[in-house]
């Protein structure tokens, strides 16, 4: 089921995303990680229609391993690390100059806003999520 293929997106570090020392600010990673999850969002809602949005964020955690700097692109790799009945966990890594600088985990829940309850992830979507499963 798994082929460990991540979704990848590369960002050019903007000057406004840095501090006086040229380091990327800690809140920027949360934004980059969210943008890196867009392909996963499209598995549920291909057109990203917010009126038909089926996901909520239950938690996220970011670990910083190395400093990130202005002037060098950053690549965010996005994997799925766990698939449950109604939730799944996303593992993300931020790489700069071939060094893993940060990791993040996010738990997303498939959610029915009409009933205000979690809902089972459709089997077809589970299969697509599985294509990006990174096993420990």
Précis, in short:
19% of the residues lie in helices and 38% in strands. It is built from three helices and six strands, in the order βααβββββα. Strands 1, 2, 3, 4, 5 and 6 form a six-stranded antiparallel β-sheet that branches.
Shape: elongated
Instruction: Note the quaternary state here.
Output: single chain
Give the biggest sheet.
Answer: 6 strands, antiparallel
| Unreliable runs | none
The string of secondary-structure elements, in order, is: EHHEEEEEH
Strand percentage lies at 35-45%
For this structure, the CATH topology is Thiol Ester Dehydrase, Chain A
The CATH homologous superfamily name equals Hotdog Thioesterase
Judging by the overall fold, what is the CATH architecture?
A: Roll
Organism: Salinimonas sediminis
Protein name: Acyl-CoA thioesterase
Keywords: Hydrolase
GO molecular function: fatty acyl-CoA hydrolase activity
Verbal overview:
Strand 4 and strand 5 form a beta hairpin. The protein is elongated. The chain has 136 residues and is of the alpha+beta class. It is built from three helices and six strands; from the N terminus they run E-H-H-E-E-E-E-E-H. 19% of the residues lie in helices and 38% in strands. The protein has helices at 26-36, 38-44, 123-130; strands spanning 7-11, 55-64, 74-83, 87-96, 99-112, 117-118. The protein has one domain (7-130): Roll (Thiol Ester Dehydrase, Chain A), CATH 3.10.129. Strands 1, 2, 3, 4, 5 and 6 form a six-stranded antiparallel β-sheet that branches. InterPro entries: 4-hydroxybenzoyl-CoA_TE, HotDog_dom_sf.
Provide keyphrases for this structure.
136 residues; alpha+beta; Thiol Ester Dehydrase, Chain A; six-stranded antiparallel β-sheet; 38% strand; elongated
